[in-house]
Amino acid sequence: MSSDMTLYWGSGSIPCWRVMICLVEKELSDYNSKLVSFEKKEQKSDEIMKINPRGQVPAFKHGNVVVNESMAICLYLENTFKNQGTQLLPDDPSQQALVLQRFMETQNIMDKAKALFFHRFRTKQEDWDQVYIGEKIKALAEELPLWENYLSQYGEGSFITGKDFTLADASLVPALAYLMRMKLPMKERFPCLASYYERVSDRPSVQSGWPPHWKDTPGYDYLKDV
Ligand SMILES: N[C@@H](CCC(=O)N[C@@H](CS)C(=O)NCC(=O)O)C(=O)O
Question: Could you say which residues form the signal peptide (predicted)?
Answer without folding.
Answer: none
